[in-house]
Amino acid sequence: MRRPHFDMNVFKERRARLSGMAPGAAIILRSHPEMMRQYDVDHHYRPDSNLFYLTGWEEPESVFVFRPGQTPESVLFVRRKDVFRETWDGFRYGPEAAATEFRMDKTYLIDELDAVLPELLKPVARVYYHFNVDPDFDRRFLGLMEKFRVSLGRTGRGCLPIHDSWELLGEMRVKKEPYEAGVLRKACEITANAHVEVMRAVKPGMNERQLHGLFVGSAFRQGASREGYNSIVAGGAGATTLHYVFNDQVLRDGDLLLIDAGAECEYFTGDVTRTYPVNGRFTEAQKRVYEAVLKVQKDVIAMIKPGLPFTKLQEATIGWLVDAMLDLKLLKGDKRQIIDAGDFRKYYPHGVGHWLGMDVHDAGLYVIDGAPRPIEPGMVFTVEPGLYVPANDASAPAEYRGIGIRIEDDILVTADGCENMTAAAPKEIAELEEIVGKGAR
Length: 441
Known about the structure:
This protein folds into two domains: 8-172, Creatinase/prolidase N-terminal domain (Creatine Amidinohydrolase, Chain A, domain 1); 175-435, Alpha-Beta Complex (Creatine Amidinohydrolase), CATH 3.90.230.10. Helix content is 37%, strand content 17%. The protein contains 13 helices and 21 strands. The strands form seven sheets. It has a six-stranded mixed β-sheet, with helices on both faces. β7 (126-128), α6 and β8 form a beta-alpha-beta unit.
């Protein structure tokens, strides 16, 4: 028997909280599609975050149905126990062990879903479900909803209203419980340490992929489960591409390296970006742009406290970065007009941050009832201002062309301010010049 390596009390408590948020409803969560196959090779499978969040369940081909206040309340549909398939693909719990080990009120085979789900829906008034992750299952789900409607006969009841489960569960996940903050803090610590290992190793002539491998290896050695997202390891002008994906170029002496990478630990991920010179020494031009971005990042973090609308962070970031663009002569003209016209987006096209947790762009509303959401203790988000000057930008001073700089940390809101959970990754110029390329301690 393969025992679950998570505390089942955590998931039971989450379901208890959800029960008070959705009385009279059914929440239906399906697993991600089976691991992608290319020819005869299986690629790594990661469970759906929301399904795992409520159950701790990690197998594919599964559906969880939660009916607050009903009997049974927690229902899990799983693959059958199959010793032959286990020889090839690994251990399966099957319905009986799944009920015992994961504290489910009732379990069924996934093959029974079509027959059982319409019965489970009879006492509920609405359904929560998230579309567009698995189109094939979406069609199956809609067919089951219609089957349920037809089964009601001449009762006068129509189709059950369907709400988005992403929003419902996002409001649970957006504020981290102490246990969750602790796991996330561990993921951030692993992430910061892995960034330091890369900093010490980088030298001109190395390939971006080598550094990617160093980051992943360091994270795994520290206990990470996987990368939190596809890492960006971008040297030179590659750093001006926000979602650079190639990670295959040779690093040149005199260029900057931007690395945006995070380690996932127990389904929570860190997300850190650092930018520094490949040879360990900033040029004067690089230093001017870097210092401008770093000052904005530090000033934004200093603003963070409960009650501040999240949108104020972006407004402040835009204003301060436009000041920097004017000082660096990347833009000319009136600051207010530049902001109103959106001209700053040429060099700063993204937001200053996003929720962070089980997903790198985590669940949770940014606006509630049309108003910007105030920051609350327990929320975690990134702060990541940047400036990106395309190499072919003839309007920019030549010394800045091809420079892309982003500095990103992970921030936990506390009762009276905030905690930078990734502060262990150096970002001051003096610190970086002291450590980059100096090898292991």
